[in-house]
Amino acid sequence: MFEANCMEEQPADIVARVLEEQSPCFVTAREGVRGVLVPLDEVYTEVLEAHPRVINARMKDLVRPGKDMAMYCVQVSLSDEKDAIRFTDEEGEPVLALVGAMRFLRWLEEEDGEVDEES
User: Fold this and answer.
1) pTM recorded for the entire structure
2) Tens-digit pLDDT profile for the chain (119 aa)?
3) Gap between the terminal Cα atoms of the chain
């Protein structure tokens, strides 16, 4: 897992790293406004589905230079993490999701608890 500030780093670079490493990224737009960009696979789809509302968006909008990624972070944050955003490729296949940071951390703790119980 890594962290990135989408106002200081290029969104395309952040997305490329998440996809290459298949690892979540804490994305910060400004103080107190952040989310977690996760690759959509069988593991992280569960945390996406834990949000009451999932908004669909296109990957090409996420990777554009500018403030689009920051606006997506603001949306997730201002919704009190009720919203998550699913990003699809040109074929409409889900690729990434931006989920609430606190919701993600709670999910991680639950996952760790389940692993401990199974041991």
Assistant:
1) 0.90
2) 999 999 999 999 999 999 999 999 999 998 888 999 999 988 899 999 999 999 999 999 999 888 899 999 999 999 999 999 999 999 999 999 999 999 999 999 988 776 555 54
3) 24
φ/ψ (deg, to 5) at 30: -160, 175
Q: What are phi and psi of 99, to 5 degrees?
A: -120, 165
